[in-house]
Amino acid sequence: MNDLLPLYGRVKQRQSPRSSPIAFLLSQVGAHAAMRFAQKLTPLNLAPPHVGILRALSESAGMSQQQLATLLGLHPSRLVSLVDDLEGKGLAERTESPDDRRTHALVLTEEGKKTLHEALRLAQKHQDDLCAALDAQEREQLGQLLEKIAQQQGLTPGVHPGFARMRDNKR
Amino acid sequence: MNDLLPLYGRVKQRQSPRSSPIAFLLSQVGAHAAMRFAQKLTPLNLAPPHVGILRALSESAGMSQQQLATLLGLHPSRLVSLVDDLEGKGLAERTESPDDRRTHALVLTEEGKKTLHEALRLAQKHQDDLCAALDAQEREQLGQLLEKIAQQQGLTPGVHPGFARMRDNKR
DNA sequence: TATTGTTATACTCTATAACTATA
DNA sequence: TATAGTTATAGAGTATAACAATA
After folding, report:
1. Which of A27, A58, A91, B73 could be bridged to B33 by S-S, CB 3.0 to 4.6 A?
2. With bands split at pLDDT 50, 70 and 90, how would you rate the model's confidence at A5?
3. What phi and psi, each to the nearest 5 degrees, are found at residue A104?
4. Is the model more confident about A12 or about B95?
5. Chain D bases near protein Cβ (<7 Å)
6. Cβ separation A50–B161 shorter than 8 A
């Protein structure tokens, strides 16, 4: 009765040599990767969402907070405190928009650009550590497989789905 | 600093034709997988940690809460409420330990076994949905690559890092 | 005195919604 | 009236530490 059943977590399954099912491995390794990256960022006193904002602004300077919130899929009220953090550290600035004085055009400071650069360096180091078990060809394979899944699942490149809390079944 | 829902993301990287780095893809797809699995569990009124406990008890009935907490890497006080949930639903029971009356031997009820079976069925469906973009050979490849990483990174098979709070840098 | 399980408290994070200032 | 941003409040979730029972 259990012989065909998959598993959440480790399971003794005879048809497959694998100890854990792929979906669990993805979630497990993914959570591990997120955790390790967050740890790597601690010297910069930044959390991963901060880096996402810095990166978004480096690609599209002058966005409003609404635009940014929509792009990154988080609530405007949450973005406020994240931008507050970055502004408090001197990494980003709310500048006045000439046409609509309700909105703030968000831009990186020079310090913000340098910090983003450093964060991306840490991200590269993070990836090297994470993939230490794989050679170049295997990394390429893994990347292609993950991209196939991401695309088929409708994930937006560069946008982390972790913003929607897992208990949010709506939307 | 405590935020583990990373938001770094896509990066223009010239050495790679890939739009996102592998580490980000892992975290992104992994979070997506976790979220979808949690959604799939809602008909059972269970969260992923509940399923982890059910599975652990199905493999090792009679564990104490301390043993279970150690195995799953979560705090005993947190385990209490999870076990409360399961006991409240009639899926698990705290039975008396003959030798040490401080401890409770945790066991699954028949209903718990059936519910675990159903959860594993949902997990299989989840995996099929998640890997819809991959053929059998690609899934096998992906599983092997993820297992290599998991092993090299010191991850315990069947133990999800998200069970423990991810902001624990200590310990 | 140490350990198991529990409870109580405090803290963190986030969503909701109220509020302001512009439009 | 609607929208951008902000602030205030409340709720969920969890860690910390105190506690009672037992060893």
Report:
1. A27
2. very low
3. -115, 130
4. B95
5. 3-8, 12-18, 21-23
6. no
For the segment A35-53, what is each residue's pLDDT rounded down to a tens digit? 999 999 999 999 999 999 9
Both structure tokens of A71:
């792009």
Residue whose CA is minimally distant from D14 C1': B78
What span, in angstroms and rounded, lies between the C-alpha atoms of B146 and B19?
A: 20
d(CA B123, CA A13): 14
A147 vs B contacts (CB less than 8 Å) = 18-20, 25
Q: What percent of chain A has pLDDT over 90?
A: 81
Q: Compute the distance between CA of residue A122 and CA of residue B16 in angstroms, rounded to an integer.
A: 17
Q: What's the start-to-end Cα distance of chain B, in Å?
A: 17
Run of H or E residues at B119: helix B110-130
The yes-or-no verdict on residue B9 having pLDDT over 60 is no
Cα(first)–Cα(last) distance of chain A, in Å? 36
CA of A104 to C1' of D22 (A): 63
Looking at residue A161, its pLDDT comes to 84
Rounded CA gap, A78 and A59, in Å? 21
